[in-house]
Design goal:
- The structure is a single chain.
- The protein has two helices and no strands.
- 31% of the residues lie in helices and 0% in strands.
- It has 89 residues and is mostly helical.
- The protein has one domain.
Amino acid sequence: MAKNHDALIDDVGFGTTNHWPSPGCGFEYFYGKFDQGWDRLREETFARQKALGVVPADAELTKRHKEIPAWKDLPADPEAQMKVAMARR
């Protein structure tokens, strides 16, 4: 049994989570880095992996999951929201 119960306080979530960091946490550096969207980002990442030999040169990028919309099909407002979300990850 732990003698110092203060260490356990961080593990208590009370059913809520906060996935959005506070302003000034450093994520501003990433603003604009994901503006091309997740489809293009996947292609760029996959190309780098091939160039580095992480995946075989003849590997093919998997299809985007059907439940994830194409970036180009997102309405303007959700697209802007996703840019912020991706920058904060």
